[in-house]
Amino acid sequence: MLPVVALVGRPNVGKSTLFNRLTNTRDALVADYPGLTRDRKYGQAKFEKRQFIVVDTGGITGDEEGIDAEMAQQSLLAIEEADVVLFLVDARAGLLPADQGIADHLRRINKKVFVVANKVDGIDGDSESAEFYSLGLGAIKQIAAAHGRGISQLLQDALKPL
Ligand code: GDP
Ligand code: MG
């Protein structure tokens, strides 16, 4: 069984952009991975000869109803089956209540979590991502998923304990 890396965060932070970059595709192939539910979007990725599964999710906003509730449920399940969670936030939009809600959940579970501040292209990444320390989930990884920046360093750290 390959390690599973889940991408979670509120909508529009860049989860799918990162997913596509990690899996080198616009729309990942969904294969049969035993033990994984098939509703979420799975892709296979490789970093420095290490293969892993990436799971994209629709997003969590915190106070969901209807289709959003379904989406949030998918995210919670993805977190459950993950070995590592990449919790994406938007360095341009800054810290929003929905981010806090997700962080509250992630702090309660016993799982390796990395806070990933995306979209640091063209801004001062250090100062724009400083506020995410208040999420209480440790160090902040800075990336620009759309440009491939910071991805190697992120994967190096995220896959290390697996
Ligand atoms: P998702 O809803 O979390 O899956 O987010 P998407 O991957 O669909 O991206 C949401 C928006 O953010 C899109 O318009 C992307 O082009 C944009 N985006 C994603 N990554 C970056 C980035 O690294 N830099 C910038 N400036 N925009 C990005
Ligand atoms: Mg998406």
TrEMBL record:
UniProt function note: GTPase that plays an essential role in the late steps of ribosome biogenesis.
Residue window of the full protein shown: 1 to 162 of 481
UniProt name for this protein: GTPase Der
Organism phylogeny: Bacteria, Pseudomonadati, Pseudomonadota, Gammaproteobacteria, Alteromonadales
Quaternary state and interactors: Associates with the 50S ribosomal subunit.
Superkingdom, natural source: Bacteria
Presence of keyword GTP-binding: yes
Family: Belongs to the TRAFAC class TrmE-Era-EngA-EngB-Septin-like GTPase superfamily. EngA (Der) GTPase family.
Binding-site list for GTP 1: 9-16, 56-60, 118-121
Residue span, EngA-type G domain: 3-162
UniProt keyword list: GTP-binding, Nucleotide-binding, Repeat, Ribosome biogenesis
Recorded coiled-coil stretches: none
Species whose genome carries this gene: Alteromonas gracilis
Record has Repeat as a keyword: yes
